Amino acid sequence: MALAQGDVEHLPLADATFDVVVSFRVLSHLPDLRAAFREMTRVLHPGGLLDVTVFGDRALDRPVEHMLREALHEVLGAAARPIRAFYRPPSIAAVEAAGHAAGLVSDDVSAHTTYRWTDPAALVEGLLVATTYLWTHLESATVERVQGLLRAKARAAASARGLEDWDYVIHYRGTRSTP
After folding, report:
1. Which of 112, 113, 104 has the alpha carbon at shortest distance from 33?
2. Of 90, 47, 75, whose CA–CA distance to 137 is shortest?
3. Which of 29, 40, 41, 64 is spaced 20 to 30 Å from 156 by Cα?
4. pLDDT band for position 30 (50/70/90)?
5. Given this model, what pLDDT does residue 83 score?
6. Is 116 helix (H, G, I), strand (E, B) or coil?
7. Cα–Cα distance, 24 to 87 (Å, whole number)
8. In this model, does residue 1 exceed pLDDT 70?
9. 79-113 pLDDT per residue, tens
10. Is residue 149 part of a domain?
């Protein structure tokens, strides 16, 4: 087994290389879901399985997501719009359409939400790590201001139980059609 690094929209792999391709919670951070599905399907053998889990569009309703967008807007004003647009998680219909457009036969498409109370500091740090790609577009002083404001908002919104949070994930399993 070998490890390869590459862009999921342009995989450095030969056609029909794998029986199974798995992607876990990555694709919702990419600009072109359909291109990623096409590439993952390209490297599947005919009859091969694609198994994808993505954060779905309802994840944008999480309180911590609202706080992040507010912090970006408070620090950047209108300049926050393009930064906020980097994270555009898809709907369940968009995921299924991407699979279909890539030539997959959908075996299972489902979504679920998991609710929990979370330590606000841990939740914010996890979000900051997951959104590292945002920070490369900003000056370090701006990043520090946004992150500090987000941490303060999360602390202020927390109750004795912590901060309300949830995951909304979409699971897609499809098979590459055979010629």
Report:
1. 104
2. 75
3. 29
4. confident
5. 87
6. strand
7. 16
8. no
9. 999 888 888 899 999 999 999 999 999 999 999 99
10. yes
For residue 87, tell me if it sits in a domain: yes
Burial of 161 (0-12, 13-18, 19+ CB in 10 A): exposed
Calpha distance 106→96 (Å, rounded): 7
CATH number at residue 49: 3.40.50.150
| CA 55-58-64 angle, 5° bins | 85
Contact assessment for residue 158 and residue 117, using Cβ atoms and an 8 Å cutoff: no
Dump pLDDT digits (tens) for 112-167.
Answer: 999 999 999 999 999 999 888 889 889 999 999 999 999 999 999 999 999 999 99
| Residue given tokens 């053998």 in the structure block | 45
User: Is 168 a domain residue?
Assistant: yes
pLDDT band per the 50, 70, 90 thresholds, residue 5 = confident
Domain tally for the chain?
1
**Three-class HEC string of 67-113:** HHHHHHHHHHHHHHHHHHCCCCCCCHHHHHHHHHHCCEEEEEEEEEE
Ramachandran region of residue 71, left (φ > 0), alpha (ψ -120 to 50) or beta? alpha
Three-state SS for 170?
strand
Beta strands in the chain (DSSP E): 18-24, 44-55, 104-118, 163-176
